[in-house]
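Annex B. Sample input.
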Amino acid sequence: STRLGAGGRACASGGGCAACVLEGGEMNWVSEREEWLAEWGGSRRLKEISFLAAGAAAPRPAQDDSQDVFFSEVIETCGRSLVCRAAGAVVDVFDISPSAESLVSWRVLLPDVVVRDIGISASCVPGEPTLSIVFLTKVVSMHAIDISLAGPVPELRAGASAPCRCAGTPSAFCALGPALVALGRRDGSLRVVSLRAGVAEGGCELSDASLLKRIAQGLTRNAGPPVLALAAAGAGAGQGMCLLSYTADGRIGLWEASERHGRLLASASVPGGAGGGGDTAVGGAGQAARLVVGAALAKACLVLPSTAILIELPADRRLDGSSALATREVWPPFVGAAPRLVTLSQGSLWGLWCGRGREQLYRLALEEPDVLAWERGALDASLIRVEDANASPALRRAATEGCCSRSCLATATGEEEERAAHRSVLTLFQQEEVWRGEEDGFDATRTAAPPQVAGSSEKVTDQAIRWWAGRALLPGRFPRAAVVTALQDGSSWGGERRRSSLGSLNGGAGAGERRAGDLRAAVEEHLRRQAGILGASSASRAASSSLAAAIGSAGAEFVRRCVTAAQRGRQVCALGVSAAWAPHAWRPAGDVLGAGAEGGLSACPVVLYSGGVSCIRAVHHWSERWWATCHLFRDMANYAKIDIEHLLGLSTLVEWKVCVTGWFLSQCVGSANIGLAICSMPHGTSSSSVVQDFVQDIPENLIKHVKKCGQWLESPSLATETETLRQLLQYTCSPEQWKVSVLGHSLDALSGTWSPGAVPQGGPGLRLSDMLRGGIAASEGENTCALLRDLSLLGAYVARESPGVCPLVWRAMTEQLDRHLPLYAAVHRSMGMHIASAGAFPGPLARASDLWAAHFRTAVAGRDVVVRAPLASMRALQYALLLMRHESWEALREWCKHQEMAAFSSYVAAREWLVGGFLDAARLGFEQAEGAAELLVQCLRSGGQEVADGPPPAVAYLQHVAGLYAARGLADDEGRFLRRAAEAAAPGDGPLRQRLWTAVFERAVQSDMLEDACDVLVSLEHFEGHLHALAQKMRSSGRVDLMLRLPDKHRSRFINNLHEHALLSSPTPGSDSLLCHNHLYALHFSAQEYLKAASIAFTLYTALGHMLQSVAVEQAPGGDAGYMANAQPWTGDCISKPSEVPSCTGGTGGAMTAAVEGVRGADAASASAWPILEQQRSALLMLLSALSLTSERVLLAPPPQGATAPMAVDSASAGGSLEGAASTWLAGVEICGGNLRVVSLKDVEQLLAVVEARLVLCGDGGAGVAPATTKLDSPASAARRVAELGLLGLALRVAAAHGLDPWQSALQPFLALCFEADAQRPEKTALVADAARGPAQALMFVRSDGSEALGAGGDAARGWWQALEHALKASGGGKEGSVHASKRRLYSLAAEELLIRRPKESLPEFLTKVLSDGPSWVSLLRLFMKHGRLEDAVDLLTEQVQHCVGAARLKVLGSERKWTPLQDFPVSLVVQLQRAVAAAKAKDGGSAADRSKASACASELERNLAKFGRLLEDAERARDSRH
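Annex B, continued. Sample output.
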């Protein structure tokens, strides 16, 4: 046995000398580092498998930081990678395959706790997409699950489950195949057990003892050494499987085992000093020994508490048991180190070694590395071609320095000797120490006012807040749950609601697209609150001297909380290897990821944490390797006595010493301060001017060390070596074209553009491999920015301390750094921004770099091909366009910050504003970017955006912008930009212009921008079809007036189109024909062609009249039902709703009953006639309006259909019908030329009254319309029925239009309605008024608001009496004579009706006042006498005597009335009155009161007659004196 780790051979002094290993470990180049992959908490659970008994309670899983959590090895087959995480009796199976589109898991519920460390084992059949996982529980039962890998997502199902009936307690466990396991016991027995029978019992026992010895052991019951570890070692030479075992006596055995037999192939013994002989109990705190078999099955490793033993497995498994296994002990990497976790790849041993308060991950090369392959990877990562590297040996050495060199140790003679020693791997813990060191150097004073930075302190404050938020959200640093926990722990200011909203940010699968922006915004808000900025005014923020200190304190405290929360899930639990992840983790940028890996590694290590998983990747780029080595030096200085000189001594290259000096200088002055100053640097500012003032911040105690580092300034070849470094920077930041050939297709690795036939795949979801490659790109970007920053600081230091050293070279380098540092700093910040719309990936929030990594994955010939994206490719415009496609505006803002592309930045801002709904700002941004349309179109086309190829750039750009608005349903803005595109098109390109104008027209019509559509229509050559579409839109929206804006040819065609549509069918209500008539009328009316408008209205009325001839409406039967006998009438506007128009009963019943029962009287025929009548009324109103505006006030119209000769108007004929009256009106006018007739305004008004009456009575079904064979009601009957409904105004209009007696046709039936209303309660009469609610109440009451009568106290009956009074007052009028006589007649008839209906009540004042004032007092006197109203007659006579006395007095004063009661004094009537009063006085019987009234009445009459006698005598004397 030999020892590894001390030069690959046995150490002569036993390995304890200083020549073998330094006290604290060997300083080496960092060629591998750890990269975070995913969190377990971000997985999406697909299924739950239970082995519990029916009704058993489900076990609760342990926490991430619980001691019960342990992992299985990484299980791989068919390109899939699975891992099991056990916590108590709950096992979660995770799919961590690189091709997985999301981190998914399955949960297995077991009846008992899984045996820790040994209780999970897996087996698979080579070449078949299936595997089996077996779990061993503490109750010694085994449960298996079967996994099928044939589909895109693994399928899990429950397998065999069996108790173990074998004697003894298991101490080791291993699955050998499907339903076949090996069990090692504490009694030393080793058995192969089958699960097929449902019970794990019997099986083959593996033993190398003879039969006689085994019998003797059984008789003496001497137990052998316990079996401590088992591991499957592949297939054997026969039908069995190879099994590797380790027992407590230090013996290692290689067995070939099957279900029926087994045999020992080879064995070896571990030396006693190697740490063998340990023991453990099942399920104890830890496993004393573990066996790990490499993926290639050529090597294995026995991990003991104090050392590790490497075992060489024989390739030929046909052994007889006498062969010895070759073993080598692994030398610890530092004094006192012990292996905690170990795993094997093909050419390396990876181990996590612990000791002396230190824990470090190392790699030990087991084979000679392929130096050429490593160097080729370093050159590819730096984008340096092999021919360029061969032409410049200095450039090649600088780019490959440290990529695969062996460590050198001093021998006893003082010479250096190359040895294969342990090489440190930069872990996440060490990277966290680097980040914390940078944050500890945050200087509040230097941050508050960065030197040479223009801008307000408020802007710098916001930058500091964003910087600290970015530190907490660095890729791979803290799990999202840790950040949310830190927010909740420090959010006492927000209360319970705030903590609840923060908890929603920690949603795992399907948390939504807001998680990225919300989490960053929450962190920034938290820092502002803690620093006291939130809510403070700008002035107080700028004037506060302690503001920067508050920000630094708040940021440091929040990061500390994140560290505390993250520690729970960052406990290393297991190490494994994965062949599927090796291509993604080990290939350099710009190289095709295929089978195999660099440096002889066919598998890369996977680190399993309690809260997530990471992998070890290669470091190929020179800048990342050099800076990672510097960071490792900083960590090793905590454990070993090493100085900066040791770091400088790793290489003799001056380029290396220059970079180390720059790194050390930035650590002295605080790299965080410089980084924040560069972040705050506005566009156009040089980085050298920003960092030059930081040189003076070097602490006094470090100045000597800085000067010692700068001894390379005295090198005679400094200029040449500095030029080499400048060339390295040029290849890193501004490489030349780099194309990669992939299966016949080419990829431009600097722009991510694939050749035709290979389509980039970035969706629909990201893959886990994209997350890894994106994280690698972010890490490389971070180290590149650190390189540029530190060299820029070093340039300022050299210019200050040694200005005469190679000034030209340093000036050129400074200019190069000024050009690249701001740009790459902005690019790196954009890479780390989380993407909200990256798809349905439920794990860690996707970053911009992850999207770009997915862009370099494609499918060629049915195969997935992946290329690592170089860092320089993220400067390409395609990267920005990809971010824009996913609406990552924050990352885009950072990317555009220092780009020399103002037009593109304006375009990006406009896109962001468009998404945010700021349409005005977006429109302005697109218009500003239009000036660089040619450049933008070229960029958009190269980025795969939807930009037309044919049109000129300006037109193509405007079309593209219009398409953006169309995608969001903004048709008006889309049409606006399409219009600008049409205007920008060249006049000679007719087809293009017509296509654009057509698109503009269609969008304008779609968005109801009809005015714009009319304007665009003029630009269309073939406008007929578009005019038809526009006409339909105008007709449907009622905007035909816009057609007046069109030229004559468009307008005339539109009007002809309307005429055609109007004549195609009858103008039924709602038809297109009716709509066309209305639009024609509106067009002519708007054009002030009133005579044409009147002609259209008359034509419409005539057509509607023909339609009425075909509508049959049956007469409603009359009835004698009592008052209010039917249901309550409906309410509403009875002019527009036929179902709510009360019907009448033909006059035989009560008027109120006729009004109430009308709701049920409207049948189907009347419902059909109603809309026609309503349209007729509208047509007449249109005709009236247009005709009144003409100068002629008449219309020449053709005669009605069927009229052959003029007819006389006989509208007063009571026997005529409404239809006959209408026909008479149509024909009874003056004929002009025999074919035309003259229609005047008066004719229209008369017919309007007819139509309105028919409209109201249509609900009754009696006087609406009927077939030609049915006799219609007369106008007088129609007027009476309308009056019985309470519509007195309409009844009077019908009577006036036909010369009817207003008393019989309107006033008398309306008065009957008033009588019945007075006899009922007000709420009953209100029902009739409610039936006419709306405009119709204007025909019912004097004043109305459409709901009730005004000025009547809400009483409908009172309102009707007011209407009667107003109608009587309005009757007659004008001159003296017949008009007044007819008016007095109406008053007399009304008074007589009242006296008949109300014999004991006095007449209303409005009647008595009019009748008693003038000659009509005689009629009133006669009425009083006729109805025995003697007292009223005497009172009237008394009133007239007073009139006479008053007239006599006026005559004395020189004034004389034209009429007095003495004129035509009714002597005979007075005599009759005197006799009647005397008879009443002399009448016997009656009460004393009646006799007293009669006596008083007689006395009053005698006095009045005496006065009349004297007045008559005076009048006679006066007449005689005149003669």
